[in-house]
Amino acid sequence: MKKLFGLLSCLFFSLPTNAVTQLDDVKSFTLNNGMTILVLEDHSIPNANMYLFWKVGSRNEYPGITGLSHFFEHMMFNGSKKYGPKQFDRVMEAAGGANNAYTTENITAYTDWFPSSALETIFDLEADRIAHLSIDAAMVESERGVVTSERSTGLENSNFRKLHEEVKGTAFRAHPYSWGVIGHQSDIDNWSQQDLESYYKTYYAPNNALVVIAGDVTLPQVKKLAKQYFEPIPAQPEPRKVHTVEPEQLGERRVYVQKPSVSSANILMGFHTPSTQHKDYYPLAMLAAILGEGESSRLYRSLVDQQQLATQVFTYLPESFDPNLFYIYATAAGETQSTALERAMITEINDIIENGVEEKALTKIKNIAQVDFHRTLSTINGKADTLGTYALFFGGHGKMFTAIEDMEKVSVADIQRVAAKYLVKSNRTVGVLAAQKDSAIGDL
Amino acid sequence: MRNSILGLCGLLAFVSQLSQAAFSLPDYEKLTLENGLTVYLMQQDEVPLISLHMVSKAGAINDGQHNGLASLSAAAFGFGSGKHSKNEVEDLLAFHGAELNTDVNLEYTSAKLSIASKDTATLLPLFRDYVLKPQFDSAEFEKAKTRHINLLKQNREQPRQIINSAFNQLYYRDHPYGSPLEGEVKTVQEIKLEQLKAFHKQFYSANNSALIVVGDFNEGEIKKQITQLFSAWHSGDTSSPKLNHFKAPDSAKVWLIDKGDARETTFMLGGKGIPANHPDSVALHVINTILGARFTSWLNDELRVNSGLTYGARSRFYSQSHTGSFAISTFTKKESTFEAVDLALKTYHRLWETGIDEKTLASAKAYVKGQFPPRYETSEQLAVALSRTWSLGLEDTMINNFQADVDALDLSKTKKLIDLYFPRDQLQLVLVGDAELIRDQAKTYGALKESSIEDF
Prior knowledge:
The complex is a heterodimer of chains A (444) and B (456).
Chain A: E1 26-30, E2 36-41, E3 47-54, H1 68-75, H2 87-94, E4 98-103, E5 108-115, H3 119-132, H4 137-157, H5 159-171, H6 185-190, H7 193-203, E6 209-215, H8 219-230, E7 253-258, E8 266-273, H9 281-292, H10 298-306, E9 310-316, E10 324-332, H11 338-355, H12 359-376, H13 380-393, H14 403-408, H15 412-422, E11 428-434
Chain B: H1 13-18, E1 29-32, E2 38-43, E3 49-56, H2 69-75, E4 80-81, E5 84-85, H3 86-95, E6 99-104, E7 109-116, H4 120-132, H5 138-155, H6 159-172, H7 185-190, H8 193-203, E8 209-215, H9 219-230, E9 253-258, E10 264-272, H10 281-292, H11 298-306, E11 313-319, E12 324-333, H12 337-353, H13 358-370, H14 379-391, H15 397-400, H16 402-407, H17 411-421, E13 428-433, H18 435-442, E14 447-452
Parallel strand pairs in B: 2-8, 9-13, 9-14
Antiparallel strand pairs in B: 1-2, 3-7, 3-8, 4-5, 6-7, 10-12, 10-13, 11-12
């Protein structure tokens, strides 16, 4: 399971001897062009980072340009006005910095990690590509090959990736969460220069970004550089809202994927759930942890340890702007039939629906969240990423510091209620990936 | 994601331990208990957490004929220990938000516990029992063995999961460094519970282990607890296999591993590297950064940026206490397999043919120094560094002199080091892909042997 609770905070065990980050340590300001910047000073190492979160992901695409958000993540490194092709990386690395980027259904994030002496260089590099990206036709062609390789290697090496794509496509028929972030190959092959230019102008506007800087910097220094480099970039009209609401699912949906080289069946279930800001988010996140986080979780204990039907199992509830899916994934052990594994997964869910959970299970999840919070705060990257996540998905970075309090409000009855409301047959999509062909002589 | 190729190089220990800026290890205290247990204590108080690593010189090199024995023996810690069953241990740890993992390497195994400082008195005795008093429950053993075999079979689905091990086997042949860390299906099937008990008795002893404690602890209290809990641990005689008789392969070889439904070819090629304590490790790390260990490296630039053949290409040294290997790795769609292999080789040969220029060297030096401090930012990272230092008999100066070593590198030394330490020929090549399609051309790179991915 993704470490949902790596994000959550501690109210009880913050020892006064430790310089544990508090809400007051985080400073925030907004430039005249609408760009919001969070700053967290941390001088424990002579390094800093800059995380730029753009509110654009695969949910902003439509058929014909699926995968474009992710492709843009690549194009942002391919040259702009002052720093031509290859220069972004060359200049950053020569200054001691490194970077990466990722795209999700909801956002595109760019991460720069550097010695604090390189702060101004980073501002200069980022400002140049935000304001003046070159979308060179030859570069676009070469990058199509890179993204095709990324798509292919994901499908080659990850059963989850393949099955996830199919389950999403089945669970969503209207909302753009339907397609994978990587996009359809035919769209990767065919999007046009015009598509790219319009996407850049619409979404890479300063008023569509959140910037987080953590590390060995000072607030006045960051303010000065932000005004100098980022403020002159003009704001753009608000992007079009994603208004499509996925119609209610009225019965179970199923999908089968054949992959000849798999040694055992893989099952991915997806249940429709509300967005991260909905009141049921914490009960659902805690339910996900009770079911699938660690060796003491319900599903692991039952399926992997006691019944030995699976070699691994996890739950995943993505942070999400729009209603999304609560995932449960399991890999069958050896010859275990997918039907037996599926039945066992559902039996565990039904047990919670019928009998609820013990208070102790909730206490455990809160305790884990408290310790994980400190693990998150032990790196400047953990701090920047988590602040950004709360600011974007939870309604403000302050929510990071009240998360345990928010979890305290969840009762065992809430857990049972959300299980009964969301984790039911008519609301689920079941994907099975296995080696067997799905066609045989005499099929009906 | 733009660049997630690290998955291909699970063996980056060399890189992660040896990059550095103006940094030296925080002060620590090193003690030895009467039974020979080495104890490291390093204070880090940014957050109220402690990392405790019990490191024992018990790795896959000690497997003997039973590949996977060290790995299963480490799994046995989790079968239940002291007075607690497996599930009781798991529940107690989870209730306190603690994390406990074991890492099996070629030359050592680490049991790694991460806890909140306030839970030390409760969880340290549990950790002692975990390492010193496993129950060797036979039902748990059978379950773990079956699961281990199933996981090995699942690894066959992913070329990335097997290529490092395959390259190690091709390069080291029957030397202990060629031992696959997790074993193989056929060897694991034969392992008996009695062998785990014997392995544990032989290798998990006080004088073959070090307890590394990094974090926010009370020094007086933790010393008292450690002395109380670990002084009765037995000492013993351990015998490890001879490691200093390795001779690198004297001819080029190709190992073609067939994966019938492959849509791409994953490959790794290389040869002789350096031991972990090599005096030029840091300088070679800088040169390798230029070749294949950053985004603008020559390999990534040619194979990804210029040609679009792959999502990522890189190179690495993988060093052990007595020797090491060097390898280049990438993947590409199956139709462009040899275009990618040839371009990788051509790019690699630039080391000799055109060499490195002043500007590129300056950039790489700045890069490795700038990226160094975050590698030692947390208690967990520092504990890993101390574990490796102790296990492989390294000196702290390898970390503490990093900046000086980087600064001392100039172009003439670069050229000398390339000639001395990068393997130029007799390269070993592993290809995982559609054998039918690539077999004929694969033969032209060296003596060919062929297996199925199902053999792993």
